[in-house]
Amino acid sequence: MKIAALLRNTALVAAGAALATTGSVFAQADGRAGPEFSKLFATYQRIKASYVEDVSDDQLVRGAIDGMLASLDPHSGFLDGTDLQRLETMIDGNYSGLGLSVVQEDGAVKVISPFRGSPADEAGLKAGDFITHLDGELIYGGELDDAVARMRGKAGTSIQLTIFRPGRDEPFEVDVTRGLIELEPVTHELMPGNIGHIMVNEFSADVGADVHKAWTAMQEEATGRMSGLVLDLRSNPGGSLDEAVALSDLFLDSGEIVSQRGRGWGESFKVEADDLDYYLDRSYSRATAQLFMGDMAKGVPVIVLIDAGSASASEIVAGALQDHRRALVMGDRSFGKGSVQSLLPLGRDSALKLTTARYFTPSGKSVQEGGITPDIKVPQLSDPDLALREKYQTRESDLRGHLINELGLKDEELEADKIDDPRFQLTAEQLEEQGVEDFQLHYALETLRRTTKSSVALLD
User: Fold this and answer.
1) Domain termination site, one of 150, 182, 214
2) Is 429 inside a domain boundary?
3) CATH number of the domain to which 401 belongs
4) Domain span holding position 166
5) What is the DSSP string of 271-336?
6) Same domain for 234 and 334?
């Protein structure tokens, strides 16, 4: 999920502090808030007076807050204690656990995607899997945060997950050993033909600078001029808005990168490429900010790979480079999360993670629900479970309470990527015989080799 920079909104802090106290506050608020708030106060009084057991103010207030936030979109929530600490460690990109991006769907914990190279990935968990039990205990109907907390733990310890995978007749169990999830945000590899492959796994701190460093390293390793680049954003759940801007800016000389529209003060703005002040205002050093000025790969063809696990910040980058015709986007339609979450402090140890704005690509398109549609849809044919996975794939539009796209997408626009393409008919078994383990990456590389004269010459 994408977390905007920490905001200190005085009005919201005051409102939060008021809700987090005892019943006297309800009485004070009741006199000025009208009939709707009167229902809340009346319910509070009834419970305090008549419930079979004594209930603390903290429990009732927390329940009221959770209920209010549950009536909003699925990305808003109340965080305190360990929940807030987990979010902070996720932003830093280091924690101990399984390495999963999950959501709650109708009471069940559903896998959006395992992080590449994580214990969950190595154990074979797939997008679309449902986790029904932890160490044999049913977690269906429980709190998502509780399930996430149980899956976290000391590196080297193990936990048994019971998995229901759509398309299989029976659930199965898998033991996963927790690891220190040092999500290398950026990894790279120089491929034959002087084509670079940069994988961005999530948008934590310094991603933009790390991509620039990866590009420089591949230039030094190459035997001649770089002839192409595959920017791989598959299964990247997002992260920092600023880092999404920085990564986009590495490939753009000018023009809008993203716009944001919200109701609150300061929530509506546009970000332009090569805006040095944007980075300096956000505490980037001048030397780092200078890295983002100009197109670092000018003249080099770029392909961006996305899939249904590419969300939020990933969609900002793909949309910006697609709209400016700086890159060809390949893969599958992205997740479709076009909203911005801000972390609003409510005191020393609690905060609201609140959806405060929508973002739009340079052409004015909202990716909410519909996601980024690739220029060339390339299915992951090397996945033997492709048909089942596509059938049960989860995107933003499948989440209960998701924001509706303001532009009113038609159903056929959401379903268009399910139409078979006659170019992609090989089976996973046939590709395995050919030594192709990752068809989407293979197709992107072959496209660059076919269309780039310099790389064709090198391969000859």
Assistant:
1) 182
2) yes
3) 3.90.226.10
4) 95-182
5) EETT-HHHHHHTT--HHHHHHTSS-TTTT--EEEEE-TT--THHHHHHHHHHHTTSSEEEES----
6) yes
**CATH code where residue 165 lies:** 2.30.42.10
The helix (H) or strand (E) run that includes residue 120 is helix 119-122
Give yes or no: residues 176 and 205 share one domain: no
Count CB-CB contacts under 10 A for residue 41. 17
For every one of its 460 residues, what pLDDT tens digit does the chain have, with 9 covering 90 and above?
332 333 222 222 112 222 233 344 444 444 455 677 888 888 989 999 999 999 999 899 888 888 888 888 888 888 776 666 656 655 555 667 888 878 777 788 888 778 777 899 889 998 788 999 999 999 988 888 788 888 988 889 999 999 998 878 889 999 999 988 776 789 999 999 999 999 998 888 899 999 999 999 999 999 999 999 999 999 888 888 899 999 999 999 999 999 988 887 778 889 999 999 999 999 999 999 999 999 999 999 999 999 988 888 999 999 999 999 999 999 999 988 888 888 888 877 788 888 888 889 999 998 877 789 999 999 887 676 666 666 556 655 555 555 566 555 555 444 545 545 656 777 767 767 777 788 899 999 999 998 755 433 333 3
Residue that terminates a domain, selected from 152, 182, 212: 182
Q: Is residue 372 part of a domain?
A: yes
Give the integer Cα–Cα distance in Å for 206 and 292: 12
Residues carrying an active site annotation: 312, 323, 337
